[in-house]
């Protein structure tokens, strides 16, 4: 692998903020790092960049151990939540600043700077100052400043968090295209699940200072390996921390309907609201009770977004059903297996998406 974090551990006053983190990334791949606040995502980036010393473990980049290397010598560039452009410098001067520090010939630096301005679709902005730019333009300049150094690894720490929703959507799509076209290896930290799916070729979910699961976004979504991943990243119902029912397997029926097919689980719920997104109607349903057949309780109240049954009015009570064959059970190794076919009886967990040092 091009990037390897092997047993990366960081402690403050004896308390771990990173605990035996293992990550492996292929060259040219983008890894989205997703998780709740305080799980160590930004700290991991800072350790890889060299801004924080490791308590134990090592970081290997392009077959070189960079664990003890000073940050200024690492072929790594980090982008932060704010663009952090120098206000007294022009856009071109900001972009070429890193080359100036490295002692690159001025004419060569300027030529490279204008090439990057073309690349970020801002060819006429070289003489402007940061205060004359929009938030999205400032982030484009910050990306150009990073790319001009030709880093082997680019670290992005929630770079779009300060942008409004529409601008955030457009610039993240643009950044994804640029990174792919340039063949940049990157780690992208975000709190946004949709953003993590769009940007990353791979997805790593952090919880309690560890990597909980790593793999392709769709694989993680369809086959969560732990109750936390199922609750945090996937859509559906987690039963007693033992099993998971995917959202797409749930159906909404009128509450007056009494005939329930054998082998179905049922919950009582209420349609609180209805909305349309991407041309599809969805109901926001609150589950009220537990499943009396399996005696596996849901939380006291659980809110789900389910494809709407428009024959039922908003505010009405409903029955939410699922077939027992569609349940995933978490086993003792925190992997999951499905119980509705012969493959499900084979307890050899598949680790295709899991990357190790």
Q: Could you please describe the fold and organization of this structure?
A:
The chain is an alpha+beta fold and about 350 residues long. It has two domains: about 5-220, 3-Layer(aba) Sandwich (Rossmann fold), CATH 3.40.50; about 235-355, Nucleic acid-binding proteins (OB fold (Dihydrolipoamide Acetyltransferase, E2P), Beta Barrel). The chain has helices spanning about 40-50, 90-100, 105-120, 135-145, 165-180, 195-200, 215-220, 225-230, and strands at about 5-10, 15-25, 30-35, 55-60, 65, 75-80, 155, 185-190, 200-205, 210-215, 235-240, 245, 250-255, 265-275, 280-285, 300-305, 315-325, 330, 335-340. Strands 6-7-8-3-9-10 form a six-stranded mixed sheet, with helices on both faces. Strands 13-17-14-15-16 form a five-stranded antiparallel sheet, with no helix packed on it. A four-stranded antiparallel sheet has the order 2-1-4-5, covered by helices on one side. A hairpin with a 2-residue loop joins strand 14 (about 265-275) and strand 15. Helix 2 (about 90-100) crosses helix 3. The radius of gyration is 24 Å and the shape is globular. Residues about 290-300 and about 330-355 have low confidence and may be disordered.
